């Protein structure tokens, strides 16, 4: 009996030790815990969120959604497929490219670097990016943050240079292209114009000041401290990333891959999950990275040099949207919000915070048509409906179209035919006349039919270019000598007619 009692005692001790080992076991990589809470109201709201994304299934791309309310994650879910080729569903751990939602992280990293005393937001950017042209005016770091630099937008330049969606794009290429631009769109600090170029330069400033890659600096200063273990700035498009969603576009009822071969972090190219972004949202309430004072300054609107707030858009009688360093300040049905969306390849992304209501909405998708759901705003209705004011519908138009009289221009379309070259873009366009239409052609792009807008003015838009305006130039002998072209991010870039 004594032997049996001793054996039972030993077994009991072993079982107790085994249980302690299990209880104290830790994962190889520790992530900061994300508070969780579910109430009846949140459960009901979650069902409504489900209804918004009900169209996604095993035959479609999809979306991942997360909701943070009152300091806790109250909803996380995936819909549809991350990879249609391999039947991999979207989950809260699916990694998306969040496109321009990336910008707030780039801006925050600059604020951290400034808080370390290593740069000033008042610095001339040519102190760090020495290869930029001298525009005879100072472009400051703060101008890059607020989209008030006057620099030409890299996406606008890139498209007109003849590059295709899916082409390889690197920071090195972009920097070379930026350095070739001889003019600004406007005097720095005097106006707003959305500019991806500025955020490429911000990332490059961090690299040159710290001696570390931008991806490394942000990992060390932001993502690791917050436990965002599935988040990284993607600086090599060939790098394997587990659980990464593919992007898809629906064309004539068939899904096609929309490739993204970009190694240019800063304005875009942050890879992350909705699960990780909940930790970023919570950091604004209880800072782990950055101080309350830094976050307060970061969330404030940017300013022009004349002291006025930077206005992104005025979309209604009292609905002014201000820009604030990679974020937009506005209100939804009377409730203040801080938001930004993103679109690259077929990724459609959104992050919105309603600080006064302690609500954050995160919605990431790999579906080009996801925007049609308008889900980002409806989700707010489910969680803070009692705080929202119903908006009055805008007055309907008369529905009467205005017929403009036909205009006959003295210039013959053949006057504009010929080859034109820009050394700033290192590219050439050829104009030909087909019937009664002027056609703009490029070796790599589809032909573009131009619409006449004046004696020497035309407009157009191709599948790979943004909408643009052209004005042909004449020399002292009244011969056509070239043209200038403008789009959302370029003003009057000059092409010269080749003899």
UniProtKB/TrEMBL annotation:
Residues 49-378 form the Beta-lactamase-related domain. Keywords: Signal. Residues 1-19 form the signal peptide. The keyword Ion transport does not apply. This is Beta-lactamase family protein.
């Amino acid at each position: 009996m004594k032997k049996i009692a001793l054996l039972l005692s030993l077994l009991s001790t072993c079982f107790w030790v085994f249980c302690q080992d299990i209880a104290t076991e830790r994962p190889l990589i520790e992530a900061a815990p994300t508070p969780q809470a579910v109430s009846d109201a949140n459960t009901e709201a979650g069902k409504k969120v489900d209804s918004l994304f009900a169209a996604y299934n095993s035959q479609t791309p999809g979306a991942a959604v997360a909701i943070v309310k009152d300091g806790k994650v109250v909803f996380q879910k995936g819909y549809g497929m991350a990879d249609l080729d391999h039947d991999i569903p979207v989950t809260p751990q699916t990694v998306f490219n969040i496109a321009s939602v990336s910008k707030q992280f780039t801006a925050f990293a600059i604020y951290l670097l400034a808080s370390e005393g290593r740069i000033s937001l008042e610095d001339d950017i040519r102190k760090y990016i020495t290869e930029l042209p001298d525009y005879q005016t100072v472009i400051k770091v703060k101008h890059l943050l607020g989209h008030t630099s006057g620099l030409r937008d890299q996406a606008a330049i890139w498209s007109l240079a003849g590059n295709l969606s899916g082409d390889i794009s690197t920071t090195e290429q972009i920097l070379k292209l930026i350095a070739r631009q001889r003019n600004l769109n406007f005097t720095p600090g005097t106006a707003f114009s959305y500019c991806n170029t500025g955020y490429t330069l911000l990332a490059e400033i961090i690299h040159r000041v710290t001696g570390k890659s931008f991806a490394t600096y942000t990992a060390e200063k932001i993502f690791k401290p917050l436990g965002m273990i599935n988040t990284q700035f993607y600086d090599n498009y060939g790098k394997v990333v587990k659980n990464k969603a593919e992007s898809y576009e629906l064309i004539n009822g068939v899904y096609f891959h929309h490739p993204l071969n970009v190694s240019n972090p800063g304005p875009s190219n942050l890879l992350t999950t909705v699960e990780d972004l909940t930790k970023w949202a919570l950091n604004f309430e209880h800072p782990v990275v950055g101080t309350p004072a830094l976050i307060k300054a970061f969330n404030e609107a940017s300013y022009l040099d004349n002291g006025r707030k930077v206005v992104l858009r005025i979309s209604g009688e009292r609905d002014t949207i201000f820009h604030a360093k990679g974020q937009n300040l506005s209100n939804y049905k009377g409730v203040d919000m801080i938001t930004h969306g993103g679109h690259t390849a077929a990724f459609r992304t959104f992050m919105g915070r309603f600080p006064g209501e302690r609500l954050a909405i995160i919605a990431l998708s790999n579906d080009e048509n996801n925007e049609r759901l308008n889900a980002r705003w409806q989700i707010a209705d489910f969680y803070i409906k009692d705080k929202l004011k119903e908006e009055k519908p805008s007055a309907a138009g008369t529905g009467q179209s205005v017929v403009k009289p036909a205009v006959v221009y003295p210039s013959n379309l053949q006057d504009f035919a010929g080859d034109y070259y820009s050394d700033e873009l290192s590219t050439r366009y050829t104009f030909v006349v087909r019937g009664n239409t002027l056609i703009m052609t490029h070796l790599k792009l589809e032909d573009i039919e131009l619409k006449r807008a004046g004696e020497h003015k035309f407009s157009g838009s191709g599948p790979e270019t943004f909408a643009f305006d052209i004005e042909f130039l004449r020399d002292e002998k009244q011969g056509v000598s070239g043209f200038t072209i403008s789009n959302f991010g370029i003003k009057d870039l000059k092409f010269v007619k080749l003899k």
